[in-house]
Write a structure and sequence with these properties.
By secondary structure, this protein is mainly alpha-helical. Helix 9 runs antiparallel to helix 18.
Length: about 650
């Protein structure tokens, strides 16, 4: 029998080093807005692409199962189709970013499914990322004391993602591997207790985000988790301990909401109390579960008893599903549906959970369905949602994404893209290894985390956070990978995957460099506008599909009162994407400043057709019609104030 030290030493081989470097990238993304910003995920993505090329070409032993090979081909075809949608997208710049993000997920899945991992390395990789997520969350919560506006949005803990629902997903995604490994007999008792304590802290951090979507996603994910992992009764017991600890701490955790939202003097004390509650809960779980692990390690059950226990766990899951269905059938479905469709209710205090499930998602989804009806075969293009929503909306929100992976697929990639992705999901699920050994079970817990990501993402825009999406595809690939003893030499596969990764890298380079130039301009324009304009010129040349450089140049020119440059920049932005209502509005402001009143009115008419509910257009039109000077700073302040009312100061 090998010792834990021997198993750890066995885990440290070439594939593990590659996996560890990838996990470092994932962790950096988690710490930086969960990898949402293009400059962030392009940088890490290029590193992962280089890592994949080197690993696949230099490491000779590569082999995948037939279902995994089919999954690679289908995901690659989906990524290629996403890139093809750039051709018919109205905003081709954001479509290129969206297609590249899909390419990133393809590279990550292919890398993790193709390498021959030593089974001992799998739990190490899973746990490392989960502990990194916990450390980042706790540090951010501690840093929020005295500085809540950088870490909370309207009373909800939003770090590290900058969006509360995505922050919740970060913590819950990281929870599943810890909970499962803590439930197994193989790790030492103290390690088991420590891992479940860390899992408890992750769940309680998620409570601070007060994600209403998690109230639906997490119960469904629990059922999926218990169906996926071996040793269901063990896994369920660990979940029960975490749930009890979280319930006991819930009042202290929820009490953070009102003081932070209202900006009261008690906010810092409430955060300190929440931190203390998390520490105490984790310590209690550590003690209890370590004792359970010691007792568990001394029990010897027959194979028949283990099989009976697992069957019992499945029965418990089935009973839970039946009870949930019965409870749902007793609920007033009609009233709940009307509440969901009604939009955001007013915050009533006490907890964000208390306002129910009302939001504008129904309206987002209505427009996404219309996009699919209008473009059923090929969709409107990757990440092209904002302009259609602005045109068709019934709310005052301006989302960039439809807040649903299930609707993103048909609306943006059509029937073709949807079938390719669903084929990938089916093959990837079938490729997951079914063994009950410790490492295989841990890998399946990672796959369960990926399933949770998909469940929660079915009602939110989690796809756009590379710090969530990339680990989800990595863990899914890891669960389908073959052990080192089963590998062979498959030169065509290695060469093909390396070539695909190289193509992805080439597609990343230009928009990445363009974004770096744009960021440099944003940082320098106040002190050196000429340099900023030069940086934006290079950004425009590097990424000719995107209007971002021109929009930034126009905004800076407005601030520096360079009206001819402002007009030229926004005209170039319109030439790239004539459906951008904001560019038309700003061009009208420039024309009005140059006393081209008739031209300004024409641009305002175009902006109004593209965004009929925008009140600012009417305010500007009144001034232009009267040939009055327009205070552009006042217009900017209106937009800033609108953002503040939605996300806080």
């Amino acid at each position: 029998m090998t010792t834990p030290l021997q198993r750890a030493a066995a885990a440290l081989d070439a594939p593990f080093a590659i996996g560890a470097l990838a996990v470092v990238v994932f962790a950096v993304w988690l710490a930086k807005d969960a990898g949402y910003a293009p400059a962030t995920w392009y940088t890490g993505g290029l590193f992962l692409v280089a890592l994949a090329v080197v690993a696949l070409l230099a490491y000779g032993r590569v082999s995948v199962s037939r279902p995994a090979l089919a999954a690679i081909v289908l995901l690659g075809a989906f990524a290629a189709w996403s890139a093809l949608t750039i051709a018919w997208s109205s905003d081709r710049g954001i479509a290129w970013d969206g297609a590249n993000r899909t390419l990133l997920y393809f590279v990550v899945y292919a890398l993790f499914v193709a390498l021959p991992w030593r089974r001992a390395s799998i739990p190490v990789l899973l746990v490392s990322l989960s502990l990194a997520a916990l450390g980042i969350g706790l540090v951010d919560l501690a840093r929020s004391i005295g500085n809540t506006t950088d870490f909370f949005i309207i009373g909800r803990f939003a770090a590290p993602a900058g969006y509360a629902n995505a922050a919740c997903a970060v913590f819950i995604f990281a929870f599943w591997p810890l909970a499962y490994i803590a439930a197994r007999r193989e790790p030492p008792a103290v390690v088991r207790g420590l891992l479940l304590a860390c899992g408890t802290a992750l769940v309680e951090l998620a409570v601070l985000t007060q994600s209403r979507g998690s109230l639906v996603a997490v119960p469904v994910a629990v059922v999926a988790y218990l169906l996926i992992v071996p040793g269901r009764l063990r896994a369920a017991c660990a979940l029960l301990v975490v749930a009890l600890a979280t319930i006991l701490a819930r009042n202290t955790l929820l009490d953070v909401f009102d003081p932070v939202r209202l900006g009261s003097a008690d906010a810092d004390d409430a955060i300190r109390s929440a931190l203390l509650a998390i520490v105490v809960s984790a310590a209690a779980v550590f003690v209890v579960w370590t004792i359970v692990a010691v007792v568990d390690g001394r029990l010897e059950l027959s194979t028949r008893a283990v099989r009976f226990a697992n069957t019992g766990g499945l029965v418990v899951v089935a009973i839970g599903v039946v009870v949930g269905v019965l409870a749902l059938s007793r609920a007033d479905i009609g009233a709940s549906w009307r509440h969901f469709k009604a939009g955001y209710p007013e915050e009533s205090g006490g907890s964000h959970f208390s306002i129910g499930l009302g939001s504008n998602r129904y309206d987002f989804w209505r427009v996404a369905v219309k996009e699919f009806r209008d473009h059923p075969l090929r969709g409107v293009g990757a990440d092209n949602f904002a302009e259609d929503y602005i045109l068709e909306r019934r709310s005052t929100e301006e989302p960039l994404y439809p807040h649903s992976l299930g609707l993103r697929l048909p609306a943006q990639t059509g029937i073709v893209g949807t079938l390719l992705f669903l084929g990938f999901v089916g093959c990837a699920g079938f490729a997951v290894r079914r063994g009950s050994a410790f490492a295989d079970g841990a890998a399946r817990a990672g796959a369960a985390a990926a399933v949770y990501y998909a469940i929660h993402g079915s009602g939110d825009w989690l796809w756009e956070f590379a710090g969530l999406g990339a680990p989800a595809f990595a863990w899914l690939g890891l669960a389908a990978s073959r052990p080192v003893i089963a590998t062979g030499r498959m030169l065509p596969l290695r060469a093909g995957l390396a070539l695909a990764a190289l193509i992805a890298g080439l597609s990343f380079v230009l928009p990445w460099l363009a974004e770096l130039e744009a960021r440099r301009a944003i940082q320098s324009w106040r002190g050196d506008p000429a340099r900023a304009f030069s940086d934006l010129g290079r950004s425009r040349d590097l990424n000719p599909l995107s209007a971002r450089a021109d929009l930034l140049e126009g905004a800076i020119a407005s601030r520096t009162d360079d009206l001819p440059r402002m007009a030229a920049a926004f005209q170039r932005a319109i030439d790239r994407n004539d459906r951008d209502w904001y560019a038309h509005l700003e061009l009208a402001l420039a024309d009005a400043g140059l006393r081209r009143w008739r031209v300004a009115l024409a641009e305002l008419a175009r902006a109004s057709r593209l965004n009929p509910r925008e009140e600012t257009i009417g305010l500007v039109r009144a001034d232009v019609a009267a040939k009055r000077p327009i205070d552009r700073d006042r217009i900017d302040r209106l937009f800033v104030e609108r953002v503040r009312t939605r996300v806080g100061p």
